[in-house]
Amino acid sequence: MWGPLASIGTVMAVSMAIFGYLGYRLDKWSDTYPYWLIMGLFAGLLVGFYDTWKWVRHLDPGAIGRPAPPPAPKDPE
Amino acid sequence: MITNGSADVVLEVDDAVQSVILHHTADTPFDPGSVMSHLVPPFLTHHGAMVVLSALVLLALMWFSVRRRPAAPVPTGLANLAEVFVLFIRDHVAIPNLGEEDGRRFTPLFCTFFSFILIMNLLGLVPCFMVATSNVNVTGGLATITLGFMVFGAMIRHGVTGFFSNFAPRGVPWPILLILVPLEMVGLLIRAFALTIRLFANELAGHLVLFSLLGLILVYGLRALPVIPLALFVYLLEVGVALIQAYVFTLLSAVFIGQAYAPEHG
Known about the structure:
The complex is a heterodimer of chains A (77) and B (266).
Chain A: H1 5-30, H2 35-59
Chain B: E1 2-3, E2 10-11, H1 13-25, H2 46-66, H3 78-123, H4 136-165, H5 174-220, H6 227-261
Antiparallel strand pairs in B: 1-2
Helix pairs in contact in B: 1-5, 2-3, 3-6, 4-5, 4-6, 5-6
């Protein structure tokens, strides 16, 4: 069940690397270093955090948003 | 430092160590020898040759493990070992992520992923061999298969419109959707890319550490002898990494394909 957690760190690193690289290339092209690079890094961070949020919601549905439904009351009998 | 210009080319030790490490990790054209070189295609590289060799080893192992033995009512020996792995992949990887029916259908794919990556990783630890999964093209090819199932498998299952409607979760206000839909689309590709990088980086880094530790002996001489037990430890760690990375790649492929097939659980 917790195996997907192995994915979270890599996805964040990879998304920041990809978007940072795209921002860097855009900076080279438009001569605006380092603004696109910074924006790319933040976009990568956003994707990484969104992925983390999805996993947490998937693995522990009560942790984010609506609280988990209370357990059914036990029959006293 | 390399001094050119005469026959006495002086190559300093640290440069020599660098070139040895690069020679053992970087991909180069495969040339088995003067007579044999006519038999191999010119595009074959060392890593490509390792992929082919791993596939042949895997085929041979499977052939020996599944051939019929009428005298033995239950699997013994190699078939018993293969059964342990196959049952583990089916019951702990495929079925929990894809459900009973799809899990059984996808078990051969995940068994192939696991055993193929494991054989490639382990063969790379044999001296004189190279590890094919330290090449990003090999891991990228494997992750492309997963991405193909995540995209085209889901399209076949849910239809093209159903596949694209999964990018927009129900009950979300439309201004949020403007951010959410691109994030979901990019997330699909990033996940496959993360699969590629994870396996590739782990295998390459392990071998670089191993060769760098052994290279310390060449640079510092006998003073660096204590790195030998350390290198042995890293080597044993690499055996564990080979197993764990094969398992992680298989598990994450199963999770991603399962989410693409049943997005309401994802």
